[in-house]
């Protein structure tokens, strides 16, 4: 067994996912980046699947044919082994499902998806459906030798199409619900930019660092608007609010430099209202009727809670005429909130409506991993999944 297989197998046994570094670069070049936050989401989907799934994301230079047999043998666990290539093609082999059905599910999911996250989001329910149906015994599924990636089989399935249609309809309704809160966020951030711009433009002794930070904050504003326009489902809003979170921290740095004050620490935003900007400290707090938990708070809200008062809580639109705290507004807001807080959010939301809709374990999502791109301290939030490399490749085949 080659060292390359052993390295992949170690990651697959640990998280269900291995990404070849060249594939990551090719995906980014193709406009479908698979960054740390997206990987964390995929790992969570894979670990939560009702049937074991192992996914390897490979580059295009693995030749005309690749096999999953070596990886399956190296992992030495029962499950469905999936290869997703950076050009969007995919295949699968399985020891627990019918091999042909699993491969067709992977091919069909790849044809429906724009990126790895969408692929896994589509694939998991397909494989779970096969498992529920008892799709057959495939004890010899990894012994079939080469599985071509270049031969794509068109697979239909009325049940899958109905499932996907219903899912898309639900996602559109949820996205419409969250749009109001998102527009409020983007507008408020734009006002912060405008207010600081007066100082940056009229002050002759503005530090160059402040000008650079303001420029990056302005770029993030434009990025947030682009991601917002492209969003097709609630989870697509994570990069929008993540950009706003990073931008607020940068604006805090600009403001501090202009006032000759210490730069704000790179921390999670205020739990009670992310628009308050980076938190100042962690405090103990319990929602009405709920249990105590530790949450990050801005200085003003921390003082209110310590003095026995109520924090300034962000409410968001629910339905036509109602507003609620975002954590009690339902699963539609999971992407919106996840972009602000990454994998730290489930632990803070235990016992709330939104918390029950998210993954149970507290994970370091990495949604904040690139929060400091170009700035200081951003890496403190990222779990990181670099994965390592395959060296010279898979010795002629996968």
Please characterize this protein's 3D structure.
The chain has 398 residues and is of the alpha/beta class. It folds into two domains: 1-114, no CATH class; 167-359, no CATH class. The protein contains 13 helices and ten strands. The strands form four sheets. A four-stranded mixed sheet has the order 1-2-4-5, with helices on both faces. A hairpin with a 7-residue loop joins strand 7 and strand 8. It is globular, with a radius of gyration of 23 Å. The two termini are 12 Å apart. Keywords: Membrane, Transmembrane, Transmembrane helix. This is Membrane protein YgcG. The chain crosses the membrane at residues 145-163.
Distance between the termini: 12 Å
Please provide the ordered H/E string of secondary-structure elements: HEHHEEHEEHHEHHHEEHEEHHH
Biggest sheet, spatial arrangement of strands: 1-2-4-5
What's the overall geometry? Answer: globular
What does the radius of gyration come to?
23 Å
Counted up, domains total: 2
User: What is the share of helical residues?
Assistant: 40-55%
In short:
Keywords: Membrane, Transmembrane, Transmembrane helix. This protein has 398 residues and is α/β, with parallel strands linked by helices.
How are the secondary structure elements laid out?
Elements: H1 3-15, E1 17-19, H2 21-29, H3 36-47, E2 53-58, E3 65-66, H4 69-75, E4 80-85, E5 90-94, H5 99-112, H6 116-133, E6 147-148, H7 158-202, H8 208-230, H9 238-258, E7 281-285, E8 293-297, H10 299-306, E9 315-318, E10 322-325, H11 334-341, H12 345-348, H13 353-357
Helix pairs in contact: 1-4, 3-6, 5-6, 7-8, 7-9, 8-9, 9-11
